[in-house]
Amino acid sequence: MNFLKRAFYSTKAKVGRSLLLTFVFSAILIFILAGLTIQSASLTAAENAKKSMGATVTLSANMENAMKDMQKNSNEGQRPDPGSFNLTPVDLDDVEKITALNNLSYYTMSSTTTVDAKSFEAISSEESSNTSEQSAPSGMKMPQMTSQGDISISGTNATATTTSFKGGTAEIIDGVGITNEDMDSNKAVIETTLAQANDLTVGDTIKIERDDKTYKLNIVGIYKSTESTDSRSMQMASLNPYNTIYTSYTFANKVKGSDYKNTADSVVFHVTDPEKMPAFVKAATATGLDTDTYSLTTNDQQYQQMVQPLDNVKSFANKIVLLVAIAGTVILALIVMLTIRERKYEIGVLMSLGEKRSKIIAQFFAELIFVLALALVVAGVSGQFVGNAVGKQLIEQQTTTQTSDATSSAQQGPGGGQAPSNMPSGGPGMGGNAQATDMQQQISDLDITLSIKELMELGGFGLGISFLAVLIASIGIMRMKPKKILIS
Amino acid sequence: MLEVKDVNYWYQTKNDALYEDINLTFDNGKLYGILGSSGSGKTTFLSLIAGLDVPKKGEILYDGKSMTKIGLTAYRNKYVSIVFQSYNLLPYMSAVDNILAALEITNSQRSDRKSYALDMLSRVGITEDIAKKNVQHLSGGQQQRVAIVRAMCCDAQLVVADEPTGNLDEQNSQEIIKLFSELAHEQQKCVIVITHEREIASACDVVLELKNKTFQTIH
């Protein structure tokens, strides 16, 4: 009969002691499992965040240098000539080189301008115009067109990849959006309020005007915008989100003039992994990009905002695992030590028979392993519930803090201070509230599920704790003298 | 077989020595009785010859080899079986499992361990039914018989017993002494019984009395 059999007999005979140990071990393992599942879920969520959020690198005109040039061109002591401020649009040849780089998920080109509505009326408020007014549906006023343009043309290569559509503040409700296949076409996607006000539907043609030239646009889709309006959009019709018409960027360039052919105001490159963003910028610069004329602006704020609470939760989970493992080892070691004191006589008998101390310790270890097996079952069943409860509570606390931070930073102004000023309506940095809510939604869905990997990790922790507990407790066994136990 | 050579033992100081320069020889096939009053050092002597402790001075040789060279654990494992006054059985096992555990620990060469253990138990009046009961459900006499069978079953040639009849009535005591006698004479083992009862000692082949820090041969 080897030590394993003795361990089995002992465990079976001492039901009360075995159950007590199972209970204590289960409690320790439940907390470790909760920590492990939260840790694992945080990692998965962070990975998913990387995939879903990515990071953006925006290629646009170098504003700082443009300003310097303007000041340089002005005479000393005189005010800079506002007319000399010139932003060079992004050359598509440069864009083509960057799109060939690795780690690029997709890119969004934008070219914006303002035009006048010709065959229809733009949405406006009373504040925006003091010219002749007409009644409009939904109680809105339709002003006369102004020379600055009351319609914003947002040219893109794909509406689906623009921040408004990606962030959920714009949604196609009829027809289709603009895609890469629509380049050099006159296709347009208009806002539903504008469509309703002018009785427009998919398939209709509208006319717009700029510099006395009239352009026809075919409506291929209607979208709904939930973007909030601010005081500026009340004063300037073109800033009203309802007056934004999405077209191909080539159409926007055509309207802007021949100088803008094969250009874009800005290009937003979506990098697959935020961690690879610096490498991407380096590679993009190495393509021969004229950094005096253009700038590459990085933005992984959204990813950082999303990942920070997950990192906090992961860090907390790590601490739970570590603390519970240490406390568990100490508790179990104390219990095993007490048990060993109680079983001193049995140890003496085994020693008198010539049993090696190592085998006696192995017997106690095996007994703890039997208990561990039971405790693993108990922890496996209940650990996931505890993990869910603790994880949800933690993530709620973290996201509330982060969301309020994100919301307040979004309220500071469009672009959050990082996006280029020539960013089109709905470009990156806009719609902060919606993004914050979206972020909260994404990280609230922390998927705390129990997998084989976690169970194996838990088993490993259990084995480690058992081993350490027996090791600490066996110091006493190593010092025991059979004569003292059995004779005195 | 077992030689006690110039053995001295003390607990606190040399001046309080229990024994001084003890020289004894124990042979196979004999039942030895060691008598002595309480506190004379009988049990300490047992712990020395059983390999539970080592002499302060002198040495104990088993078949010419020093016990310390053999190693105390190895010595207890291979060469000696101990029977205690308080039986010292593993409390969470049956009688037969106690014997099987001892056979396993001492690496008994027997292949039919279980049937051998049951057979040996039946020889001391422990039926199979009783043998399969937890030892805590057995009487003192039955437990002591199990402890003796455990010593008999192991391959060790030396059997030492410390007050084996101390907790038993007269009838059981007689049966136990009879068993030890059989162990010595039939299995040709060297059996050393520590006792303070002269009636028990009278059944032994050789009786030694521990008196004034030395052993005197009674018969």
Short description:
The complex is a heterodimer of chains A (488) and B (219). Chain A has 15 helices and 14 strands. Chain A is of the alpha+beta class and 488 residues long.
Could you explain how this protein is built, in words?
- The complex is a heterodimer of chains A (488) and B (219).
- Chain A is of the alpha+beta class.
- Chain A has 2 domains: 3-52 and 306-486, no CATH class; 55-299, no CATH class.
- Chain A has helices spanning 3-13, 15-53, 63-73, 92-99, 163-167, 192-197, 231-235, 249-256, 277-285, 301-342, 344-352, 357-411, 432-444, 452-479, 482-486; strands at residues 55-61, 90-91, 104-117, 133-135, 141-143, 151-156, 170-175, 187-191, 205-210, 213-225, 244-248, 263-264, 266-271, 294-299.
- In chain A, the strands form 3 sheets. Chain A has a 6-stranded mixed barrel. A two-stranded antiparallel sheet of chain A has the order 2-12. In chain A, strands 4-5 form a two-stranded antiparallel sheet.
- Chain A is elongated, with a radius of gyration of 34 Å.
- By secondary structure, chain B is of the alpha/beta class.
- Chain B has a domain at 1-25 and 34-79 and 190-219: P-loop containing nucleotide triphosphate hydrolases (Rossmann fold), CATH 3.40.50.
- Chain B has 9 helices and 10 strands.
- Chain B has helices at 42-49, 67-70, 72-78, 95-105, 113-123, 128-131, 140-153, 170-185, 198-202; strands at residues 2-9, 19-26, 31-36, 57-62, 65-66, 80-83, 158-162, 190-194, 206-211, 214-217.
- In chain B, the strands form 2 sheets. Chain B has a 6-stranded mixed beta sheet, sandwiched between helices. Chain B has a 4-stranded antiparallel beta sheet with strand order 2-1-4-5.
- The relative contact order of chain B is 0.20.
- The mean pLDDT of chain B is 90.
- The chains are: A alpha+beta (488), B alpha/beta (219).
- At the A-B interface, helix 1, helix 11 and helix 15 of A face helix 1, helix 3 and helix 4 of B.
